[in-house]
Specification:
The protein is an alpha+beta fold. It folds into two domains: about 140 residues, D-3-phosphoglycerate dehydrogenase, domain 3 (60s Ribosomal Protein L30, Chain: A); about 70 residues, Alpha-Beta Plaits. About 30% of the residues lie in helices and about 35% in strands. The protein has a six-stranded mixed β-sheet. Strands 8-9-7-10 form a four-stranded antiparallel β-sheet, covered by helices on one side. The radius of gyration is 17 Å and the shape is globular. It starts with 6 loop residues before the first helix and ends with a strand. The N terminus is likely disordered.
Length: about 220
């Protein structure tokens, strides 16, 4: 489920008592921010399982908000995340719920960006500071933040994926892995491409010009 990193052996440099509840939570928030694509204006964060039961004591709430603010796991401002969010005018609301058959350390983000866009992201902290995003809006995904990632929302039509991979090949971008999901045949589809190189703006622009593509975003790996 993704490539191995030094995190698997020693965990990340971090502020906080737990790699899963603190470092992983920061990275989850940071990934949700990257998927949103701009600074959040409102955030509803739902905690599940262990996050809900012991997260407050481990600083999980602070860590999730810190990630949404663009902080890294070793940022000394993490304990002040709520205060900084308030100063920026970001409305944060926490709740707890059973999110179903997911990892115990799971959170759901419902974010509204400054640009007016809305996104729902579900992700889990799976140990050693590592994370996996399992849902973006209504689509099941598996994104771990290890690669340069292309996210495409498009119509499920013949030839769309081949057009996208052709653009990537022309830009000399090597695909590490790809996942395509759809609501139903001919409806909306989501394509996730994880690549070894950055998705250049010119390549992204070409994709957005494809008639069947509704939205395209490029996300850099988590640090």
């Amino acid at each position: 489920m993704g490539k191995s990193t030094v995190f698997d052996l020693i965990g990340p440099v971090m502020v906080g008592p737990s790699s899963s509840h603190t470092a992983g939570a920061v990275r989850l928030g940071a990934m949700a921010l990257k998927i949103l694509g701009n600074e959040p204006m409102e955030a509803e964060i739902t905690l599940h399982g262990s996050f809900a039961e012991t997260g407050k004591g481990h600083g999980t709430n602070l860590a999730l908000v810190a990630g949404l603010l663009g902080m890294h796991t070793d940022d000394e401002r993490i304990p002040k995340a709520f205060q900084i969010a308030e100063e920026k005018g970001i409305k944060i609301r926490f709740k707890t719920d059973n999110l179903g058959d997911v990892h115990p350390n799971t959170a759901r983000f419902r974010l509204t960006g400054r640009q007016g866009n809305v996104v729902e992201v579900i992700g889990s902290s799976i140990g050693g500071g590592r994370i996996v995003v399992t849902r973006i809006n209504e689509f099941q995904v598996e994104v771990m933040g290890d690669f340069y990632t292309l996210i495409l929302l498009h119509q499920d039509l013949p030839g769309v994926v081949s057009q996208v991979t052709s653009i990537l090949a022309t830009a000399q971008i090597n695909i590490a892995q790809m996942h395509v999901s759809r609501e139903k045949k001919g409806a909306r589809a989501l394509t996730i491409v994880e690549a070894d190189q950055a998705i250049e703006p010119a390549a992204l622009t070409l994709m957005t010009r494809l008639p069947a593509v509704h939205q395209a975003m490029a996300i850099e790996p988590l640090e």
